[in-house]
Amino acid sequence: GEDVEQSLFLSVREGDSSVINCTYTDSSSTYLYWYKQEPGAGLQLLTYIFSNMDMKQDQRLTVLLNKKDKHLSLRIADTQTGDSAIYFCAEIVHNDMRFGAGTRLTVKP
Amino acid sequence: DTEVTQTPKHLVMGMTNKKSLKCEQHMGHRAMYWYKQKAKKPPELMFVYSYEKLSINESVPSRFSPECPNSSLLNLHLHALQPEDSALYLCASSQENSRAALYPDTQYFGPGTRLTVL
Fold first, then answer.
1. Which residues have C-beta within 8 Å of that of residue A65, sequence separation ≥ 6?
2. Which residues on A lie below 8 Å from B107 (Cβ)?
3. Considering CB atoms only, which of A42, A45, A97 is closest to B110?
4. DSSP bridge pairs for A87
5. CA distance A98 to chain B (A)
């Protein structure tokens, strides 16, 4: 079947904005999530967006949703070295949760 | 206390063994989750419990048997596993909300149990 797609790698300089993109599979997805996983650490639910919203902002994080293109993005403002991690997007369709492969964000000083 | 604890941290077992993974939280959360994450792969949701009742089973093989004996504890009983079941097993909890447990507002994850099946 179709996969939730993400670019595998992103590298930015400290202080710049990062934009992590995700293409999901099903237009009937109700909730879309972003998770963060630091090296050797557990998972962290960062934020989510409901499908009737276009945008959600939470401090340095901005989630944009384009339902027509089934495209989700996570923008991190003023990226810090502590933001270096793998970021997973996930969709929920019919009681099934599907994760993307994850984007490894590297923040260079 | 915003901690989810998991024991053991590491587990090595043979294919004929029976073992259990444990997860505990004392935040009063009524939704608890098991995820499996193979090396360099995304997590996969396995089970969701809501108010101690199994609400989601993502077609997981019967050699994995979850149990929620009370609102603070979640177990995963393992029997006759295969080497391909070697993975990091993550537990999480969340506050129940007006939606189903599958749609958490926040989630707290444990550090995981790294399982190796020989």
1. A32, A49, A51, A53, A54, A55, A71, A72
2. 43, 45
3. A42
4. A36, A103
5. 7
> What's B113's DSSP letter?
E
Q: How far is it, in rounded angstroms, from Cα B52 to Cα A45?
A: 22
pLDDT tens by residue, B19-43: 999 999 999 999 999 999 999 999 9
Q: Which residues of A touch B49 (CB under 8 A)?
A: none
pLDDT lower than 50: segments of chain B: none
Taking CB atoms and an 8 Å limit, are A44 and B104 in contact across chains? no
For the stretch A47-90, pLDDT in tens is 999 989 999 999 999 999 999 999 999 999 999 999 999 999 99
* Cα–chain center distance at A60: 13
Q: Of A88, A92, A102, which has the smallest distance from its Cβ to B102's Cβ?
A: A92
CA dist B46 → A108, B31, B66 (Å): 36, 14, 9
Which amino acid type is present at position A14? E
Residue of B nearest to A89 (CA): B42
Distance CA B46, CA B62 (A): 12
